[in-house]
Design brief:
By secondary structure, the chain is of the alpha/beta class. The protein has a single domain, classed as Rossmann fold (3-Layer(aba) Sandwich), CATH 3.40.50.1950. Helix content is 36%, strand content 17%. It has a six-stranded parallel beta sheet with strand order 3-2-1-4-5-6, sandwiched between helices. Helix 5 crosses helix 7. It is globular. It starts with a strand and ends in a 15-residue tail after the last helix.
Length: 260
């Protein structure tokens, strides 16, 4: 099975704390049953989403990045996209010489690669000459674009055509209907039930042909109980699997049938 390249966008919802859980779930999916899958992941985060990533989460992501850098050292070829982790390339972030960063199951890590975590600053830092535009390079590189979580602000930006950061620029350049585009919304119940959200989701699913992974009901970060929490990471990965390997599990309006 050929390697699939997944670009994950992370916007500023408290559900951004689930990023490491999502990465772990994708890694496990690569080795589920006896079907070996190869997945390479790059992550794009907005400036404010970084506030939700704890030191522990950043350390865990760094470990995955270092593992991947070691595996890719002799065959890194991502259409000219430099590896980066929060603005530092793999030549700056050196793994320990004793290789203590390796997980206990090194073999399990080899089918999963986290080859970059990009910020808005990377967009300008990587630009040197004609052709080296990061959001276009990422758009061309990826087989699938998943935004999880997609908060109300970034939803409004993308639905209205705004492109004022790296994540929204990738979304604006993403080929409509050409490659899978998945969105997992996460916001307060009142924000999710707002008529503007309904209108913007119609633009996303009908005009931009994104598949909406619907939020779930639970106690939200604000303390209220209601619809708005990001879908379980297992559900997101199930949706990702179907989008990459088979017919998309959505109806013609982009609604996720898995949660009906």
């Amino acid at each position: 099975m050929p390697k699939k390249k997944v670009l994950i966008g992370v916007s500023a919802s408290v559900a951004a704390i689930k990023l490491t859980d999502l990465i772990d779930c994708i890694r496990e999916w690569c080795h589920h049953a006896n079907i070996a899958r190869e997945i390479e992941v790059k992550i794009v985060i907005t400036r404010n989403s970084g506030f939700f990533l704890s030191r522990e989460a950043r350390s865990k992501l760094r470990e995955s990045f270092l593992q991947s850098s070691a595996m890719l050292v002799d065959n890194y070829d991502d259409r000219g996209i430099p590896p980066s982790f929060f603005g530092q390339d793999s030549g700056v972030i050196k793994p320990p010489e004793d290789q203590t960063f390796w997980s206990s199951d090194r073999q399990m890590a080899t089918n999963f690669v986290l080859s970059g975590l990009y910020t808005d600053e990377d967009e300008l830092a990587f630009w040197e000459e004609r052709g080296s535009v990061l959001h276009i390079m990422l758009k061309s590189w990826a087989d699938l674009f998943l935004i999880a979580p997609l908060d109300a602000n970034t939803l409004a930006k993308i639905a209205n055509g705004m492109a004022d950061n790296l994540l929204s620029c990738v979304a604006r350049a993403w080929p409509v209907g050409g490659k899978p585009f998945l969105i997992a919304t996460a916001m307060n119940t009142d924000m999710f039930d707002h008529p503007l959200t309904k209108m913007q989701l119609e633009i996303m699913t009908q005009t931009l042909q994104a598949q909406h992974i619907a939020p779930i009901s639970k106690q939200l970060a604000c303390g209220e109980f209601g619809v708005g929490a990001m879908a379980n990471v297992n559900t997101i990965v199930e949706f990702l699997e179907k989008a990459l390997e088979g017919p998309c599990p959505c109806d013609q309006t982009g609604t996720n049938r898995l949660q009906q």
